[in-house]
Design brief:
By secondary structure, the protein is an alpha+beta fold. The strands form eight sheets. Strands 1, 2, 3, 4, 6 and 7 form a six-stranded antiparallel beta sheet that branches. A six-stranded mixed beta sheet has the order 18-21-22-15-23-24, with helices on both faces. Helix 3 runs antiparallel to helix 4, helix 3 crosses helix 5 and helix 12 crosses helix 13.
Length: about 550
């Protein structure tokens, strides 16, 4: 059916009940693109309808260099999603009741992550997946407004994606920035690094709720002793701070940029859009932010390397609680990260349980070890690296005993890093600690857990996301507010859909790690849309760590042997 036939069909719907819009489902050939109406919303207040448009390669006219490899293609798709999102916002307007007139494209935020909003095929064709609020007055169809939206605005949206109409300089920047950042991350291991922060990076954000770069921020500059240069495919030679494998402390006075640097490393597991300021701040892809999380669900986690002989004989080799304390939650978060293969742990003392991080000499003298069930992280951090190759980057401002175990100490001074490693060693020599190491037995890495099939809610709707921080599954509410490396609602949308597949894998007998790996393999080989029944443009790629974290916070989760 062609666009003229679609116009006539819409006209015949005028004044009818909203449900008649379902007659529009189908495929329509316009002059230069094909329009798919895959799902129509039930009423003007429901989630907007699912639309797609397909531009053939000869219309899109994208140069081959823009999608010559996987990294360039991801940069291109993010750029096109950004372009379409800006255009959709300009075209959208209120056209009646509820969501009437909405035109929504889920473009990238500050991170450049594979998205389902745009897909570029191997020959350069483009598919845009977006959402449309079909117009109505009350629950009566407004045909004229619908014709304007579908027959005028959507063709304008399609034209915005054709190469002659694009911002060529910004397109090149997106493509090359993504390629350079991925190249840099892949080089970390060869260079003995877990992270790199390029000179000139802008790390501070505009505010706690605005992730854009702060204005008039101090550009980052690495100290000579920790600097190295790396040749990138597009930008050429860049200089910056290399954070080496091992134990790294970030210290300094309050408000001088310690946590800001750690936050940059935390989101450095993702690439960033041009203009973010952190385009060449990259971290090991397995790095996990660890924090205390009072009140979280913990199910059958072996926290015994950190916590043993609890009162009343409570087992810590398979520890479960519906309401973890600060110390038990932080121990569980570490063990769960290691279960999924984390090789870098990022910790800020401001969001940590103090008694989990350190017990100083005076407290050891006051409370004997046999009365204290916690082995502090201080006494495990070197063992984790030396025996298992797990590095730690730790922000400290008040725990000087950590100087004893550090390989590198960086002091932030007015948002600029200084290498104070040698000074730290001199202080350790001049002021020897009086505390005793409290780790009495070797650290044991966790085995991958298995869960009972009855763990999962029986709900025909399945898990569904509510913003960035929440997934609803039946009567269960999964709180993801403390999983800080989920950076956008589109990731949570994808995680919600992946959880249902994850449950199926576990019900078949897979361990958590096996199930997560199977889902990751599915997504990598078949794409994010393999998690959906219909193609939709509001999903973004996630890491295995966040998928496991979502399941770990399901309160109905039960160990298989329970």
């Amino acid at each position: 059916m062609d666009a003229k036939s679609l116009a006539q069909k819409i006209k015949r719907l005028d004044g009818r009940g909203y449900g008649a819009y379902k007659e529009l489902k189908g495929v329509y050939q316009f002059d230069t693109f094909k329009l798919f109406i895959d799902k129509v919303q039930a009423d003007p207040f429901a989630s907007p309808s699912l639309f797609r448009l397909w531009l053939p390669a000869e219309v899109a006219c994208l140069p081959a260099w823009t999608f010559a490899n996987r990294e360039r293609k991801t940069g291109l798709e993010n750029f096109l999603a950004h372009t379409a999102a800006v255009k959709a916002r300009a075209l959208a307007k209120h056209r009646g009741t509820g969501k009437s007139g909405q035109l929504i494209v889920h473009g990238p935020g500050q991170e450049m992550i594979p998205l389902t909003a745009v897909e570029v095929t191997g020959d350069g064709a483009v598919e845009l997946r977006f959402f449309v609020g079909l117009p109505a007055a009350g629950r009566r169809i407004l045909a004229r407004q619908a014709q304007e939206l579908i027959l005028e605005d959507i063709p304008a949206l399609a034209r915005s994606l054709c190469y002659p109409n694009l911002d060529h300089a910004l397109l090149k920047n997106f493509v090359e920035t993504n390629e350079d950042a991925s190249f840099l991350r892949q080089k970390l291991g060869d260079l003995g690094l877990i992270a790199f922060v390029a000179d000139g990076s802008i790390l501070p954000r505009a505010s706690g709720v605005d992730p854009r770069p702060a204005k008039e921020a101090v550009p980052f500059e690495a100290p000579a002793s920790l600097a190295l240069e790396i040749e990138l495919p597009n930008r050429g030679r860049v200089r910056g701070l290399g954070i080496r494998k091992g134990v790294t402390l970030i210290t300094g006075g309050g408000f001088h940029g310690k946590s800001t640097l750690l936050k940059a490393l935390e989101v450095g597991v993702y690439n960033h859009v041009p203009g973010d300021g952190r385009e060449l701040v990259v971290s090991d892809a397995s790095a996990v932010k660890i924090r205390a999380e009072d009140g979280r669900q913990v199910t059958s986690v072996n926290i015994s390397p950190f916590i043993t002989h609890l009162p009343f004989g409570k087992d810590t080799t398979s520890f479960s609680t519906p309401c973890a304390s600060g110390s038990t939650s932080q121990a569980a978060n570490i063990m769960e990260a290691l279960e999924i293969g984390a090789k870098v742990l990022l910790i800020d003392e401001d969001t940590s349980a103090t008694n989990f991080m350190i017990r100083d000499a005076r407290m050891q003298a006051l409370i004997a070890k046999e009365k204290e069930p916690i082995t502090p992280y201080l006494d495990r951090v070197r063992e984790l690296f030396e025996r298992f190759g797990v590095s730690t980057v730790l922000v400290v401002g008040g725990s000087g005993d950590y100087l004893e175990v550090a390989d590198t100490v960086i002091a932030m001074d007015h948002y600029l890093p200084r290498d104070v490693t040698q000074k730290a060693r001199e202080i350790v020599a001049s002021f020897p600690t009086q505390r005793k190491v409290e780790a009495s037995r070797p650290f044991v890495l966790p085995e991958s857990r298995k869960f009972a099939p009855e763990s999962f809610p029986r709900d025909r709707k399945g898990p569904r996301a509510k913003g960035r921080e929440t997934i609803l599954w039946g009567r269960e509410k999964i709180d993801l507010s403390a999983v800080e490396q989920i950076v956008c609602p589109e990731q949570t949308n994808a995680l919600a859909r992946a959880l249902e597949r994850l449950a199926t894998e576990i019900e078949k007998g897979a361990s958590l790690r096996e199930a997560v790996e199977n889902i990751q393999h599915q997504v990598e080989t078949e794409g994010l849309l393999s998690l959906c029944r219909l193609p939709r443009g509001d999903l973004a790629a996630f890491r295995p760590h966040e998928l496991a974290a979502a399941l770990n916070r399901l309160r109905s989760l039960k160990p298989k042997d329970a």
